[in-house]
Design goal:
The complex is a heterodimer of chains A (128) and B (511). Chain A is α/β, with parallel strands linked by helices and 128 residues long. Chain A is built from five helices and five strands, in the order E-H-E-H-E-H-E-H-E-H. Chain A has helices spanning 13-25, 36-44, 64-71, 92-100, 114-125, and strands at 5-9, 29-33, 51-54, 83-87, 105-108. The radius of gyration of chain A is 13 Å and the shape is globular. The longest helix of chain B is centred in the middle third of the chain and has 37 residues, at 267-303. Chain B has helices spanning 6-21, 41-47, 51-54, 68-80, 125-154, 173-179, 183-186, 191-194, 211-218, 267-303, 310-341, 353-363, 365-371, 390-407, 452-457, 465-476, and strands spanning 26-31, 36-39, 85-92, 98-110, 113-123, 158-162, 168-171, 196-198, 222-223, 231-234, 240-252, 255-265, 349-351, 374-379, 386-388, 413-421, 424-431, 479-485, 489-497. The chains are: A alpha/beta (128), B alpha+beta (511).
Chain lengths: 128, 511
């Protein structure tokens, strides 16, 4: 069985490494990115991605919503990839914007254990 | 015509003399040259000259203070015209004191011949003095009133006065300025109809909740505090000015005379408060990232099956607990700043109170088991499914239930009841804990307030929970109340309209 690929887009280095480590322990191949542009370029390079783990505020001048605008646009090859938004800083109506984009789930980092989110990843990628 | 009886004549003359001599009015009879032939005792008592000193002199003795023009007219009237002269004259007593008299001087004409004059004078200086005093008093009063008017008109706070019916009778400059209205346009109008009061969510405050109405109906002073009751005054150009208001009924002899309304524009303070709130919001957001890092790394370490001693594992657990508590505190701070910065997002869906309560009890089962607390839940069947925001219900009930669990000693009892009464849905959380000290009960909904006994039981509480609940209910159409007895327990009751919460696409979302 080939391992599923998870793209983690998160600007905080310590968080990025613990997420990567945990996902790898759970048996996934992990690609990481700290900015929208870098993440998009991975996709353009043809890296196959089964799930995207997305933060809101990122390096560079684009945020998680800009990323979704890009990959959810009509005709996009990546519009069906399941997305988990894991953030602390996106507030208020931003959450609604994410929900409107049809993301799988929206997490406030501080309220969730890492294991809980990994469990959800497992559920979404079960059978891959 | 019968001859007069000489005896009667004498008697009459005697009575007449007696009357004249007992008058305080002074009466003088002179010859044509003005030499005094008779002066009654009134002359002596007024002028201070004795009868002897007066006889043979002219009235110039005390008179003669007027100008020549006066005397020319005087003599012409009584001597040439043979008419009565009437006027006020200035006289001088023997002791040098001036006085004013009203004088009437008539010629005595016998058989067509001028024989002399009779002068009657009345000292009116006392009268004039009193008149002066009255005038002075009136002037003083007018000055004092002008001064008061000027002060009232120019004080830096808005001042409006109404009569007992609430009709505006006075508006000062500052009130005109803040309202953007001219006093001439609002005097005579009903206060409650003319001045629009709004709450933080820009909704008009219902009449019976307005401080003016409350002061008028209770006849007590109602003073608002912007932190607890943020009111905004609607102005002519549709602005909402943040204000504090002081409504004072003026009662004299058990009768309401006026209502005095003073309001203070707290825009500057409000701006400062908002920037403080924004800072708290920003800082809290920034705190979350390192907190998440601590949480997730500690969690990862705790998940390691081997490699730690029992002590080390305990230390890690302490770090994890503290970090979680810190996360909760940051969340509460963020919620407070959201509630203060704008209107909250209220997104309702049909749900039952039972669902909301059971979810919270389920979430708290670890703590309930740990303290072995008997939690009873009784939800009346009569309560229908209503429109509620699940997140807000959870935030409110979690706060109440965790408080009840925290302050109730092990093996104690916590009861959660809900029923419909008086047209509202009432959800009560009753504990058998330490209670709220009587003297601190009025402060319990203030931000960051913690009762002394609560602080000693649990030093980590933020004092934000009840403030958050009250703020949420203020914006969603409910209310909260409590009864508490120290060392017996406290019951908090959330009242919601039977229709449920009203949805509102606010600008902030509570977590």
């Amino acid at each position: 069985m080939s391992m599923a690929n998870v793209l983690v887009i998160e600007d905080e280095r310590p968080l990025l490494s613990v997420i990567k480590k945990k996902l790898e322990n759970a048996g996934y191949d992990v690609v990481t990115s700290r900015s929208v542009d870098q993440a998009i370029s991975y996709l353009h390079d043809g890296v196959h991605i089964d799930l995207i783990w997305l933060d809101h505020y990122l390096f560079g001048n684009k945020d998680g919503l800009d990323f979704l605008n890009e990959i959810k646009k009509p005709g996009s090859d990546w519009s069906t990839i399941p997305i988990l938004v894991v953030t602390n800083t996106a507030t208020m109506d931003k959450k609604h914007s994410y929900i409107n984009f049809g993301v799988e789930k929206y997490y406030a980092k501080v309220d969730f254990r890492l294991d809980e989110i990994i469990n959800d990843v497992n559920k979404l990628l079960k059978g891959k | 015509m019968s001859q007069p009886n000489p005896n009667n004549l004498i008697e009459d003359a005697y009575a007449f003399k007696l009357a004249i001599e007992s008058l305080t009015t002074h009466i003088v009879i002179t010859n044509v040259q003005g030499v005094i032939l008779y002066a009654n005792p009134g002359v002596s008592s007024t002028t201070g000259y004795s009868h002897e000193e007066l006889l043979g002199k002219t009235p110039r003795l005390w008179g003669g203070q007027m100008d020549s023009e006066f005397y020319a007219l005087f003599w012409k009237t009584i001597k040439e015209d043979r008419k009565t002269f009437k006027g006020e004259v200035k006289n001088r007593r023997k002791n040098g004191e001036d006085y004013v008299a009203r004088a009437t001087v008539s010629p005595i004409i016998i058989n067509g011949e001028l024989e002399g004059f009779i002068g009657i004078e009345e000292d009116i200086s006392e009268h004039i003095h009193r008149e002066h005093q009255l005038q002075e008093q009136a002037d003083n009063l007018a000055f004092a009133k002008a001064k008061d008017d000027a002060i009232m008109a120019n004080i830096g706070d808005g001042l409006i006065i109404t009569d007992p019916q609430g009709i505006i009778t006075f508006v000062n400059n500052q009130a005109e300025f803040v309202l953007g209205m001219k006093s001439a346009d609002i005097i005579g109008k009903n206060y409650l109809d003319t001045l629009v009061l709004k709450d933080k969510t820009n909704n008009e405050v219902p009449r019976e909740q307005r401080p003016f109405y409350r002061a008028l109906s209770s006849l007590t002073q109602i003073k608002t505090n912007f932190i607890i009751e943020p009111y905004f005054l609607g102005t002519a150009n549709n602005q909402a000015v943040p204000i504090t208001i002081n409504n004072t009924p003026v009662i004299i002899d058990n009768k309401l005379l006026y209502m005095v309304i003073m309001f203070k524009d707290v825009s500057e303070e409000y701006k400062i408060d908002l920037s403080k709130t924004e800072f708290v919001s920003l800082a809290s957001h920034q705190l979350r990232t390192p907190l998440s890092t601590i949480n997730w790394y500690t969690e990862s370490l705790l998940n390691e099956k081997e490699g730690f001693t029992a002590d080390q594992r305990t230390y890690l657990e302490e770090i994890y607990t503290a970090s979680k508590r810190m996360s909760e505190l940051v969340k509460a701070l963020l919620n407070v700043s959201r509630l203060e910065m704008g209107t909250i997002w209220i997104e309702t869906k049909p749900m039952t109170i039972k669902e909301a309560v059971e979810q919270v009890v389920q979430e708290q089962k670890i703590m309930i088991a740990k303290k072995n607390i008997n939690v009873s839940v009784q939800i009346a069947d009569s309560i229908p499914t209503i429109e509620l925001d699940p997140k807000l219900m959870n935030v409110m009930l979690t706060n109440l239930v965790t408080n009840a669990l925290k302050y109730t000693p092990p093996q104690g009892k916590v009861s959660i009841d809900a029923d419909m009464r008086d047209g509202v849905i009432a959800i009560s959380v009753a504990d058998t804990g330490c209670g709220i000290p009587q003297h601190q009960q009025s402060e319990i909904f203030k931000k960051m307030f913690r009762a002394d006994n609560a602080r000693s039981i649990d030093s980590d509480g933020s004092g934000l929970g009840l403030y958050i609940i009250k703020s949420i209910l203020d914006q969603s159409g409910g209310s909260i109340s409590f009864v508490s007895e120290e060392n017996k327990g406290t019951t908090f009751t959330i009242s919601l309209p039977v229709k449920g919460m009203h949805s509102n696409k606010g600008t902030r979302q509570i977590e």
